[in-house]
Amino acid sequence: NEQEMDYYLPRLEKQIVKIKNDSILLDAIKNEIKLTGEKLEVRILKEAELTIQREDKIHMIIEKIKLNKEWFESIKIKAAKQRISLDEMIEKDAEYILNQELN
């Protein structure tokens, strides 16, 4: 779909630039491709795509949290106990859930 590509491509380009400007991540990728023989640009593209997929999954989890009254209220309590913003706590919980799903 053309509309999806208009949304996706700028995100992908931005993520590629971010990776190229992150010397630690770029060094890790370079070390990894020494073992795999993969081309640097291909590996950077894959990393950018994976990052965007992860961001999208986190966003979906955040939406589920906000739509579930009990879940949302429990996170409000956790945020207050940890003295962090509600948005930060929601993001932390979403990242935790995604990591649990991936493991």
What are the SSEs and their pairings?
Elements: H1 2-21, H2 23-36, H3 40-67, H4 69-82, H5 86-102
Helix pairs in contact: 1-3, 3-5, 4-5
In short:
With 103 residues, this protein is an all-alpha fold. It is built from 5 helices and no strands. It has helices at residues 2-21, 23-36, 40-67, 69-82, 86-102.
Task: Provide structural commentary.
The chain has helices at residues 2-21, 23-36, 40-67, 69-82, 86-102. The protein is mainly alpha-helical and 103 residues long. Helix 3 crosses helix 5 (86-102) and helix 4 crosses helix 5. It is elongated, with a radius of gyration of 17 Å. The model has no long low-confidence stretch (mean pLDDT 94).
What are its keywords?
about 100 residues; mainly alpha; about 90% helix; elongated
Q: Looking at the structure, what is the overall shape?
A: elongated
Termini separation: 32 Å
Report the major sheet.
none
Poorly predicted runs are: none
Order of helices and strands: HHHHH
How large is the share of residues in beta strands?
under 5%
